[in-house]
Amino acid sequence: MCIPYNKKITILSTLRPVGAFAALCALRPVRALAVSRALRLRVYALLCVLSTALCIRPAFADSMTIGGKEGWSKLSVKRGVAEGTGRFGYPCIELATDSRSADAFTDALFDFEKKPFTDTAGNYTVVKNELLLSGKSAMGKGAALSRGKGGISIHGKRGSLFGSEGHAPSFYIEFWLLPAVAENGEVVFNWRSSRSIGRNVVYQMITASFYQNHLSWTFSNLFDGYEKGDVTLSGITTLIPGTWAHHSIAFDEESGCIEYRVNGMLEAIAYVTSTGRASGSVYPAYFGVPADIELCGKYTGSIDDFRIQKGTYDNAMRQKSEDASTLGYAKYRVSGGRIETQPFLTSVASSLDSVTAVVNEPAETAVRLYVRSGDNIFGWTDSYPAWRPVRNGEAISGVNGLYFQIAADLYPDGNGSHTPSITQIDIDYTVHPLPLPPFTVKAASGDGNVTLSWSHSVDESAGGYYVYYGTRPGEYLGRVAREGSSPVDAGFVQSITLTGLRNGTIYYFAVASYSKLDNRIRGSLSRETYARPEAESTYGK
């Protein structure tokens, strides 16, 4: 029975008989003469017996670490995750916040992840900026900080919502706010323009400002034909300084409905229709001369993920934009995130023993681990070979191959407000030993054949033998033997006759043992021998 071996521990192995015998014979001449030939033979025989009995051919218990001080460079898939700070100060994998991303309907998107602040959608340019970069964010890793001394002014390019004059489609505007104070008169959003109606010039305005710890939206002269004054929507939720809240205002050109929401909850609703209700004729939105939008011009606090979106603000888009449940906006996507390591190369028929992850799982969050293995990664897809779920730190059986790959799914709590994290993943696996070759190999030529014989390998893990042959020393590319091309699987025997060989041609042979665990685990070659087949002589008959 073979003794397991951990690479982190040094073990002194018993000398193989040949090496021990050679060491004995290499003694200084005076001492060597003192040892009788009979004694040397007895020592050699004893070493053979001990080596066969002990069979110290270690199975290497190896390991690999991903993450921790090694970092996360060995990941091939990072979906919905980001790097944070985990245990012991090492980088960890955690869920990425549900930051906004630009799509075909995005008119503007400022995520404030880094300076200079730019529009991810590419439709607006920054005219002036007094905002600072802050690491205290609602989404992603960065936010913008305003100190009440001027914000950021942006100008829409031709074709953008605020860069084009004329009738406007459905739209909505959203952002995160973290007010330092919520005093009256603080202005978060301000757009002022004008349009000509006949010979008259009419001034237009859209503003979002604080009044008694609530955010209030005002639309002035924006809706064509509407003559009932300003349209104002005020929130009912008291905004708490130092607390992030999500705000959105939406206009539907088909129904004339304007909705204001805080953290996904409806705060105010108005209809710009002839009846002031859901019925009646709709007054369309009409934008005048293109003008700048000023964000946080008179505001003290932080803003994050400012976005203008074109399109109808229906339930599908609202769900995509925010968590409309009573529990408010989800900071993390409930669908979670995933990582996959690169397939890593081990040795033929290696066995995966365990996967141990250093994780932090707040209440109701979860980390799920998966593994898969194979011998050829070129045919691998997202789903093939199939992923197998495993438990953190528990023993794994039946996962063998040349390549291993590890995956992990991360899930937030039901509110999407907390994330689990993974600081490190330790992968333990066993590399099976290569069996020793036979010590002696003999070749006897015949008519069109060669009979090879050998002693059994002293390695107890040997389960059979491969016979290599060819016509050049060290090149075993033979194909002519009826028993098959080189190498020929001889099985667990001590001799084989290769037939169909050409008389007069010299052939070179070597034998290798393969493991009883898997015939793909083959050891080194024996000493080379040779023979030349020849026809039986009729001389003297």
Set down the secondary structure blueprint:
Elements: E1 4-6, H1 17-25, H2 29-34, H3 37-54, E2 59-67, E3 75-79, E4 81-85, E5 91-95, E6 106-110, E7 124-129, E8 132-134, E9 143-147, E10 152-156, E11 166-167, E12 171-179, E13 187-197, E14 200-211, E15 214-220, E16 231-234, E17 245-252, E18 257-262, E19 265-271, E20 286-287, E21 293-298, E22 300-310, H4 315-321, E23 337-341, E24 344-360, E25 366-374, E26 388-390, E27 400-411, E28 421-431, E29 441-446, E30 449-454, E31 462-470, E32 488-491, E33 495-499, E34 507-515, E35 522-525, E36 529-531
Parallel strand pairs: 1-2
Antiparallel strand pairs: 2-28, 3-23, 4-5, 5-28, 6-22, 7-10, 8-9, 9-22, 10-21, 11-20, 12-17, 12-22, 13-14, 13-21, 14-15, 15-16, 17-18, 18-19, 23-27, 24-27, 24-28, 25-26, 25-27, 29-30, 30-33, 31-32, 31-34, 34-35, 34-36
Helix pairs in contact: 1-3
Rg to the nearest angstrom?
Answer: 39 Å
Oligomeric state as shown: single chain
Overall pLDDT? 85
Number of helices, counting only DSSP H or I runs of 4 residues or more: 4
| Uncertain ranges | 1-35, 47-56, 321-328
Could you describe the largest sheet, including whether it forms a barrel?
A: 11 strands, mixed
Content of β-strand: 35-45%
CATH architecture of the largest domain: Sandwich
The N- and C-terminal alpha carbons lie at a distance of 55 Å
How much helix is in the residues? under 10%
Q: In short, what is this structure?
A:
The protein has 541 residues and is mainly beta. It has 4 helices and 36 strands.
